[in-house]
């Protein structure tokens, strides 16, 4: 599947939840791991709710580098309220221009797929799911599919 800005905007709309609380974070994290397009032991899965990191599960094949990538992707979503892959495509994958134009640092932000906003209907963005471990397109699709599975399974 070729990722386009239009497709990703549709994915963001499809994943809007009826509710999302601290109690839901564990289940969402587990659904994302189950949706992994590869070995989930290669992934770190993080969920931020508000300003709190409420879920972290690092596979046995991850390192600090995965932590760092997930955090940088998460910052992009927090800044733009769109998935990190959407922001990448919206900036024509020109990272240097993105950093210059937004006054941001590559030390803190990464416009690579793998972080996805958590939206609640009639509320807006309440959190972010960010993963790292696969190629960026697969990280993006894993987040999306995990959110869709969570929404269907738990009627959120």
UniProtKB/TrEMBL annotation:
<dbReference type="InterPro" id="IPR038084">
    <property type="entry name" value="PduO/GlcC-like_sf"/>
</dbReference>
<protein>
    <submittedName>
        <fullName>Uncharacterized protein</fullName>
    </submittedName>
</protein>
<dbReference type="InterPro" id="IPR005624">
    <property type="entry name" value="PduO/GlcC-like"/>
</dbReference>
<dbReference type="InterPro" id="IPR010371">
    <property type="entry name" value="YBR137W-like"/>
</dbReference>
<dbReference type="Pfam" id="PF03928">
    <property type="entry name" value="HbpS-like"/>
</dbReference>
